[in-house]
Specification:
138 residues, alpha+beta, three-stranded antiparallel sheet, two-stranded parallel sheet, 5 helices, 5 strands, 12% strand
């Protein structure tokens, strides 16, 4: 899946997708892409592929392809606009070790989760911070 585009954008009369991509983009995603390609007035947006949506339980972990790409984009644009902005994520994703490592690598400042997930989340956050520190010293 990493060799393929996971997020398809559409804006200003151009789209990365098209009507024939319903299996990949879902019906609405393919139709929005086609409407944009036809020049119909469609607000700018994006579609995450069905493959990405089905790759992991979206209520447990942040899919680093797809939703993760959007998080990276939000961090990049937010910090470009306001360099001192504090970016956070709240919810069950904040207790998932893989999501915590992703948040650390992406530049989020804070994660939160349910109380029962705090011990594992703290351990994962420490591991992610140590990994980032070691990588910066290498």
């Amino acid at each position: 899946m990493s060799d393929r585009n996971c997020v398809y954008t559409f804006e200003d009369g151009k789209a990365e997708g098209q009507a024939g991509m319903k299996n990949l983009l879902g019906g609405k995603g393919a139709n929005l892409a086609e409407m944009s390609n036809l020049g119909l007035p469609v607000p700018p947006g994006f579609t995450i592929t069905t493959e990405v949506c089905m790759a992991a339980d979206p209520f447990v972990t942040i899919g680093q392809e797809g939703v993760g790409e959007l998080v990276k984009l939000a961090v990049e644009r937010g910090k470009k606009t306001r360099p001192n902005i504090k970016l956070r994520i709240c919810g069950e994703h904040g207790g998932d070790p893989a999501s915590i490592h992703f948040c650390e690598a992406t530049g989020l400042d804070y994660v939160s989760c349910s109380p029962y997930r705090v011990p594992i989340a703290r351990l994962a956050a420490a591991q992610a911070a140590l990994g980032a520190k070691a990588a910066s010293q290498a």
